[in-house]
Amino acid sequence: MQGIYEMLNNNRKHIPAEKQFQRTAHMKDFKKSHESLQQTLSSLEHSNTDIIRRLIHICMFKDNEIGNHILRVGEISRFLAEKTGETPEQAYFIGMAAPMHDIGKLGIPDAILYKPGEISADEYEILKTHTLIGGNIFKNPNSPEIEYARQAAVYHHERWDGQGYPHGLSEEAIPLAARITAVADVFDVLLSWRTYKEPTTETKAAKIIARNKGTQFDPHVAEAFSENLEEICHMRNTMISNADNLWERYPHSSN
Ligand SMILES: [Fe+2]
Ligand SMILES: [Fe+2]
């Protein structure tokens, strides 16, 4: 901006007074339209973040425990993104996107989702489509916030070794937001009760993440996880103690 003003001001003294007046008026118009563009961009950014927040809120109605799970995954993911060297802005986007990882489950029948015990092979195939349903929800993203949410929703079950779903992508072909979400999600699920399993301990869950480093998980992310295990567990336990009003206390929540 400064450069443009300087350029417009160059040789000003050689310009007739009337022209100089017109030029000043143009400069003011230019500055005004630049400011209004900046305002529009920041309000667009705000509204995209706001949409994501409202979607998180919708997911929380499905099941309270799932609601708390996705908020925890969001916070752990934001933290891991920072620890893997992302900028605070990127980490914020990833933290906002991660809770969207299972939004596609809204399209899966409850009979499969909440079936006690093991599900059949056919039911598992149906369950796997929650990634594609999530992808449809965030199809044609028009902002980084929505794109990150799409990445978390579609790719969080991909594996570093290419053995995951829905596309069998491997290594860095899997978007970073999804590689980070995958670690946070698995860790939180291991520690949680589900209709098909009892919770495991923090130590056992941490060992499972470490053991699957470089096969299921991005080694860089899994390492950041192991190095910061204590802080992650503390963060998670604090969120659990505040579970009753977690949404109100959620750092990204304004409604
Ligand atoms: Fe999932
Ligand atoms: Fe999950």
Order of helices and strands: HHHHHHHHHHHHH
The largest sheet is: none
**Rg, nearest Å:** 23 Å
CATH superfamily (homologous) name:
Hypothetical protein af1432
Bound molecules: fe (ii) ion
Helix/strand class:
mainly alpha
Overview of the structural elements:
By secondary structure, the chain is mostly helical. The chain has one domain (55-249): Hypothetical protein af1432. It is 65% helix and 0% strand. The chain contains 13 helices and no strands. The protein has helices at residues 2-9, 17-62, 64-83, 88-97, 110-113, 121-128, 130-137, 144-155, 176-190, 202-211, 219-227, 229-241, 246-249. α3 packs antiparallel against α4. One fe (ii) ion binds at residues 69, 73, 101-102, 185, 189.
Write the layout of secondary structure elements.
Elements: H1 2-9, H2 17-62, H3 64-83, H4 88-97, H5 110-113, H6 121-128, H7 130-137, H8 144-155, H9 176-190, H10 202-211, H11 219-227, H12 229-241, H13 246-249
Helix pairs in contact: 2-3, 3-4, 3-9, 3-12, 4-8, 7-8, 8-9, 9-10
The chain binds fe (ii) ion (2 copies).
Short description:
With 255 residues, this protein is mostly helical. The protein has one domain (55-249): Hypothetical protein af1432.
Distinctive features:
mainly alpha; 13 helices; disordered N terminus; elongated; Hypothetical protein af1432; 255 residues; binds fe (ii) ion
